[in-house]
Every structure is written in C-alpha cells, then in structure tokens.
Amino acid sequence: MLVPLFYPISRGGQSSIQITAIKKVKDAEKSLTCRTSSTATQLCTNAECYSQQAESTIDGSKTPHDILTCLSSCKARDIKFTFGDKKYIRANGKCCVTDNCNSIPAVSNTDVKNSSLECPGCFEFKTYCEATLMKCPEKEDQCVNITGTFVDASGSKPFYGRGCTAVTERDIVLGDTIATGENSWFQISGFSVEKAKDSSWSVQESSTVTLLLSGLIGIQLTNFFY
User: Fold this and answer.
1) Which end of the chain, C or N, has fewer beta carbons within 10 A?
2) Distances from the Cα of 28 to the Cα of 21, 22, 99, 219, 226, angstroms
3) What are phi and psi of 29, to 5 degrees?
4) Which residues contact 81 (CB under 8 A, 6 or more apart)?
5) Count of CB atoms situated within 10 Å of the CB of 30
6) Any idea where the UPAR/Ly6 domain is (predicted)?
7) ∠ Cα 68 152 110 (to 5°)
C-alpha cells in the first residue's frame, strides 16, 4: 500500500501540507542574496549582508582593503585608532538585510584637524613601546592601550599600541580581528580606554605649580634676608 508523503490531518484549520508550505516560506524569508565581490553574489541563510573597508599605515601599506560577505552575527563598526603621526588603523563596517545591499563604505577621513586633547602615543611590533604625548584628531576623545597579534603571509608577531581613538570598550570584544589585507589582520587580545586629557589643563597646572614654587621661594628669601 502506498503511504502518502503528508497526512492531511487538520491542525487548527491547517493541513500538514499547508504547515510545510508555510515553513518553506518562512525559511525562504530568512535567506537573502549578498554581494561577495563587484560581480559575484552568495545566497545567505540566517545572516546579514556585511561590507567593510579597512586602511592601515602600520603594516607599510595604505591601500584600502574591502570585504563583501554575509555574517550570521553581524556587527557594524567604525574603528579609528591613531598611534602617532601618519600611524593609524581605520575600519568602517556596515550590516544590512536586503538583497545585494552591501556596498563598500569609505573609511573615516584621516585628514582632520587635531583637537586640544592629548594621549600617550606609540606603536611597535613588540610587547611594549615607549610613548610620547601626541595631539588627538578631532572626535577621538579616548586614550587607548591595545595589544594583540598581527598575522600576514610571513607569519604572526605581537603588537602593542597606545594612542587616540573614538572606540569604547563596548565596541571591542577580545578576539576581534581587523582585516587589513587579503591575508593580513590584527587580532586583539588586550584593550582598554580612558578619557583623553585637554592639553590646556596641563599648561594651567604647570603655570600653577610654577607660581606656587615662585611664591615659596620668595617667602624663603624674605625670611633669609630680613
């Protein structure tokens, strides 16, 4: 005896065939087409389309690196790390949920004025670097300490950086990677930030200390000569 594929048993006014059809429609609704290059696309299920442009002067190349893909756990990001004069990492990533929506976003402009905020700045492919005070670009109001591993075709090596950023601790998860090339990326293992200080306060504090010292010396000289 032939057994039917679906038993037409009524469930709240719907047959099993209708329930299966509805499930297929819902599954189809969870799929979308995402761009993976300027000419290619990919069908993605339970995911969002993602696009990113990254640019780094740290690894010796300023050429922007573009990523087009789909991610099951998509997180938009606009990363700005400045470690000193012409030393920076930028990455701008966007998520979207319609077919072929992921066009490449431009990285943040690096040709911006400096603010009066200051942070210690340095970067080395080592576990430590000697920092000197640097002016922060406008809108980068946090001082950052960041450590991790840089990976490229030649292998991996540690890195340590201090500088200015607009990124907060909520924006970074340890283990996050920032791809700067087809086969190169920074993987973050340590990250902390604190509010940058205004350089005008340093000048005021220095002036206050100078005035106090001058006053104390004057008092001592007065006591000595009279």
Assistant:
1) N
2) 11, 10, 13, 85, 96
3) -65, -25
4) 88, 89, 90, 144, 146, 161, 163, 164, 165, 167
5) 10
6) 39-103, 116-165
7) 60
